[in-house]
Design a protein that fits this description.
Length: 355
Amino acid sequence: MSLERFINQAISSWMSAEGPDADIILSSRIRLARNINQYKFPILFTNDEAKSVIQKIQVIMDDSSFSKLGKMEILLMDELQPLQKRVLMEKHLISPHLAENASFGACLLSENEELSVMINEEDHIRIQCLYPGFQLLEALAMANEVDDWLEEKIDYAFDEGIGYLTSCPTNVGTGLRASVMMHLPGLILTQQMNRIIPAINQLGLVVRGIYGEGSEALGNIFQVSNQMTLGKSESDIVEDLISVVSQLISQERSAREALVKSSNIQLEDRVFRSFGTLSNSRIIESKEAAKCLSDVRLGIDMGYLKGLSKNILNELMILTQPGFLQQYAGGPLRPHERDIRRATLIRERLKMENQ
């Protein structure tokens, strides 16, 4: 498979399209957790009950009455190889929990991969809408349309006083998780992030790494999301997140301007050194690659680097993950072999920009 064809097949629309505030916001995501009444939660049900849930939802999703969904493809976790599940997780189309723990789970994916419906993850149903840039309201509108359509056909586990019932207490209520993926090199380089994170936590939001809870913020990419879903409406939760993220965008842009004023030549040197590393390395580890990609993306946004796609960070942060590297190679790779493949893929991707 050629690199061009691999990239075309591997890149989701949120990676290749450019949404609002794309210089800082890589993607916006809305996820709704739902369970089916009269079924045990996934943490308690049997394999037969798990299969029954999949069959029930698949029959519903095969109904063409909701035209906005388009064609949906079902992927059964027990029919996928570990590497295939890892690639789906690296693309943010399924959660680490579904990839690693749900033998009798499944995922329904739209053709453009903006919509995924995870089945038998921590809950029976998790509706996820993933959009490029700062589009939380648009993602919420789409998720709600899908949810309303499903609720006409499924008796959800719901309590009038509490809201939607979920496996994890922190999801009870609206069952909503809203999040944005942000590139914040300015706040890191000006050493402001350590004081900003506690302030965000005090507002009922949480800052995590690129793959959510327990993951590392590689390449200065952070995921900011709501922490609680009970006691607020969906629109209030999203509006609160939008308010905080808007402030972060403003602070990041101010930090970048301050860096240009105080350390312009040092910043330019950092950008071009990282570009040189990516363009010429024969071996590169994931952390170094993430750091260099962050610098290059910052250089593109600040106008130091010309003729490079603004989406290169989105693409290569995903394409250089272990699962993708091994899929590109056609089989398992040892860590050292992955570092060689990573360097090769990055060099070839950068050369494509100049063709």
